[in-house]
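[Q] Does anyone have a clean structure-token version of this?
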Amino acid sequence: MSYQIYIVKTFCLLCKLSLNLQSKDKTFEMGLFDNLFKSTAEGVNISKINWVALTNEAQLNEIITLSASKPVLIFKHSTSCGISRMALKSFERDFDLPETKIELYFLDLLRYRNLSNAVAAKFGVSHQSPQVLVIKNGEVIYDDSHYSITIEAIKKVL
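[A] Here you go.
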């Protein structure tokens, strides 16, 4: 066992964290980080947000139509990116808008990469991850990415 894995294993045992070692490729997973790096779909969904899964290109036309009567937010999330996960958790924690104010769509970038490209093309924005788009009357009125994604900034454009 390498010195680094021994230290990590000892630390985890002391902190009573779950640890699964695979000796062949020396990868490990610690329970402490599951909530930071696993997607909501992989774990228990404890979000207070009722996301609509964005899974097909036809939904983009529905979003444009819906945005004439109610703003629509698309959260583009990479389930393998720690920064994306932290931005999503922060967004979900701080979200306090009534459901009547905005419609919320969630796009899993790893599962639907082609759809992410279609979103970028349809709405004329560069691809980012994580990224939030707010669409009103068929146009993007707000987009931001990474740690710049905040509920307060979104509220200002609504």
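[Q] Thanks! Anything notable?
[A] The CA atoms of residues 1 and 24 lie 11 Å apart.
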